[in-house]
Amino acid sequence: MRFVAGGKAEEFHRIGVDCLRAYYENNAPFDADKTVGVERHVGFELPVSDDAGEDTAIVHGYVDRLSIGRDGAFEIHDYKTSRSLPHVEDKEADWQLAIYDSAIRRIWPGVGEVRLVWHFLRHGQKIVVTRRAEQQAPLDAQVRDVILKIWNDQATGKFEYKESPLCDWCDFKEDCPRWKHPSAYEALPEDERKFETGVKLVDEYAQLEAKKKELRSEIAALEESQDRLAGSLFEYGGRHDVSRVAGTDVEADLVEKQETKFPTRTAAPRKFEEMEAELKASGAWPEVSKMDGKSLLDAIKEGRLAGEVLERVKAFVEKWGKVEPHRSVRLHKRRASADD
Questions:
Q1: What residues does 105 pair with on adjacent strands?
Q2: Cis, bond preceding 286 (omega within 30 deg of 0)
Q3: Cα(142)–Cα(107) distance, integer angstroms
Q4: Domain locations in the chain?
Q5: Does residue 293 register a pLDDT over 80?
Q6: Is 74 exposed, middle or buried (0-12, 13-18, 19+ CB in 10 A)?
Q7: Which H or E element spans position 268?
Q8: Fold of 9-154
Q9: How far apart are CA 116 and CA 127, in angstroms?
Q10: pLDDT score at 62
Q11: What pLDDT is attached to residue 188?
Q12: 10-15 long-range contacts, Cβ below 8 Å, gap at least 24?
């Protein structure tokens, strides 16, 4: 058994028991209405037309429970086990039960008010929305617009999708760009799958991605070894008072300097956004479209700023910049000597 939302069977069993207990306690002795249908199939034909002509769409669904209240009004009940409890406004705009209402009115013309009732079982709460006959025509028009968009997408081959756990219940996987090939893959005999062109391309790409991951791990290990050796080189340079160390074929320059570091979007996103907003708002750096600490420092060093702007930028650098020692090893080919 697979649960769309994830989780273990034992946990869902406990939730189910809690939902049933709360529903029973809130609704016993179940005499507020009379049930006239459970999992009742309802539907209707909806004429749809545009410049290309007219056609008919079938709109249908299944009502969890259809009942008649003590006042004679139809009630359409829907049972939800969602974790969140929505606002009433969300359900007033919800199409699902409203479309069921349209179907009921076509089955029993002349129906007055219909109550849409959502039972949120985890919370022991229900939301009730009343619909009137005059709301049917505007909803039908909205549904027609969606149907026309679907038909247009099918005709042009532009089939937009929104992937979600509900895809498992979709009837259009064979037409959907997201699921068309996986569905075709499953339909192939197992011994033929690896020979299909798309499958071969994905397999080859995945192999290269795995190799890249392997190489990234190797590079990370190499860089770690380099860092250790750099530390040893600087220690050697300090002991012997040298800043260039000769190797067999190359020489290593040991560079030590002070660098001003600013918060980065990756390492400190909140500080970065605050800093960038302050810089833009100050008007001290009119050329800025994004935070660039090096450009600020270069502008100061090259004398491109003066007066009030210079003072503002200096104050900004002093506030946000952090001076840190930086060491690096730069390799170059060893210069040939007279003896070589």
A1: none
A2: no
A3: 21
A4: 9-154, 157-187, 243-333
A5: no
A6: buried
A7: none
A8: Lambda Exonuclease; Chain A (3.90.320)
A9: 8
A10: 93
A11: 94
A12: 15/81, 15/122
